Amino acid sequence: MRLNNKVAVITGSGSGMGRAAALRFAAEGAAVVLADVNDTALDEVCAEIDSAGGKAVSFRADVSSAADVEAMVKAAEDSFGGVDVLYNNAGYWRYAVDGYQVGETDAPSPLLTEDMWDRTIDINLKGTYLGARFGIPALRRRGGGVIINCSSVAAFRVGHGASDAYTAAKGGVLALTRSLAVEHAPENIRVNCIVPGPIATPLVERMPAEDRDAFAKYVPLGRWGTAEDIANMALFLASDESSFCTGQTFIVDGGYLAL
Ligand SMILES: NC(=O)c1ccc[n+]([C@@H]2O[C@H](COP(=O)([O-])OP(=O)(O)OC[C@H]3O[C@@H](n4cnc5c(N)ncnc54)[C@H](O)[C@@H]3O)[C@@H](O)[C@H]2O)c1
Q1: Is 152 in the pocket of ligand 1 (CB under 6 A)?
Q2: Interval 181-219: pLDDT, tens
Q3: Which residues pair with 60 in a beta bridge?
Q4: Which of 148, 152, 188, 244 could be bridged to 170 by S-S, CB 3.0 to 4.6 A?
């Protein structure tokens, strides 16, 4: 029970890595605030935690909306008395919407529509900023706490369908992590960033199965990661086991970036 008496807010927890972290955190004793734009998915995860004997509430929030994120933090404080862990996991990758080809290098940025640029930056980067903006005062009220951000291997390597806005947004998340960590370390607030490699979640389910299989050759460990692989890292970062870690980037990619 590494998160006993802790309250954790997890964005994008209706699916994939956010869902896996929510289940894991609840099993380790945390009261979890599930936040997502997908109400149905939230209800399902909430019921799953409930039936396993854990504590969770769900809250519909779009992380790119300041009003929603402020209300999400307030809902956490109202429900469980405070916030100890904020996991800014929600993200958006346009290939999940528009289709994906292995080996495809993304269209050059001039072909990216301004709408798509804005949406990608707003959810991935501004959403992380808004989490910090409203989450840090809540962590401060508890005498400290933890923020976990979510970047991507796309911030380091362009290609395989990831570049332009997504790469810029996820690179921004790395830089924002370092900046927040240094600024808020004196308040006992630790800020770290997970860099997932290829992880089999609903985000990438639209890829054709043969492309998914082919992608594994870019991963030295020879497989796609699981949402639980990331939840294990998130649990380490949320718990006191990582008490001397801040401002850091934790790559969980099966060796993808080492290749
Ligand atoms: N799956 C991968 O291979 C991979 C690799 C690197 C990074 N990532 C990042 O990991 C994170 C989790 O991705 P996943 O694979 O679990 O995706 P997923 O699609 O399974 O889950 C993402 C969840 O975020 C929610 N969401 C989307 N936009 C939102 C918004 N504006 N506000 C609130 N919630 C919103 C979705 O409804 C969904 O439930 C994302 O930040 C993603 O960019 C994923």
Answers
A1: yes
A2: 999 999 999 999 999 999 999 888 777 787 778 888 899
A3: 36
A4: 152
Given the CA of residue 124, which atom of ligand 1 is nearest to it? 41
Pairwise CA distance, residues 6 & 145, whole Å: 10
**CB of 16 closer than 8 Å to CB of 93:** no
**Site to substitute for ligand 1 among 163, 203, 249, most atoms within 8 A of C-beta:** 203
Q: Which ligand 1 atom lies nearest to the CA of residue 17?
A: 16
| Domain extents in the chain | 7-258
Q: What is the pLDDT of residue 102?
A: 47
Task: Reply yes or no on whether 87 is catalytic.
Answer: no
CATH no. of 7-258: 3.40.50.720
Q: How far is the CA of 93 from the centre of ligand 1 (A)?
A: 8
* pLDDT tens digits, one per residue of 112-160: 778 888 999 999 999 999 999 999 999 999 999 999 999 999 999 887 6
Which atom from ligand 1 is nearest to the alpha carbon of 224?
3
* Any ligand 1 atom below 6 A from CB of 36: yes
Query: In terms of pTM, does the model score above 0.90?
Result: yes
- How far is the centre of ligand 1, averaged over its atoms, from the C-alpha of 186 (Å)? 31
pLDDT at 108 (0 to 100)? 47
